[in-house]
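#onboarding

Welcome to the new folks! Below is a worked example of what a typical request in this channel looks like: someone posts a single protein sequence, and someone else replies with the predicted structure as tokens. Don't worry about understanding the tokens yet, we'll cover that in week two.

Example request:
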Amino acid sequence: MIVTDLDILHRSSTEARLKEGQDIGRKLIKEFKVFQETHKDLVVVGLAAPQIGLNKRVFFALGEVFINPKPINFSTNNSVSYEGCCSLDGCYEVRRLCSLSMRWINGAGQLCHKRFEGNMAAIMFHELDHLDGKLISDIGTKVEKPPTMKSK
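Example response:
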């Protein structure tokens, strides 16, 4: 079940041991699939451990488990993204850096390193914010709908 309690979601997460991170990763994948099935009208791209009540630095996004992710390099440019969140209602306009490089351990226990840009960087920053106890409602502005969406 997805956590919506702001007191829980605003807590910073602690690092996970490898096995613990792998177990949490499997739970995240399961909850992610359940959420997708029950919310077919939404585009869901990630889920962080705090959103399922686990205060550990693990998230699932873009089909991969990220254990103890560490940003190691950021761009200086930023842009606006329009984001939703499984734990919140609505859409938020959020200003994010355009790229980042990150290190993490994947679900297979391998050390990974990759640079993310554009929308992929926004997704990584969103999930990293969850691990730091920040929500899009803390850093963005709620909007009725993104400017590219047409009224029904």
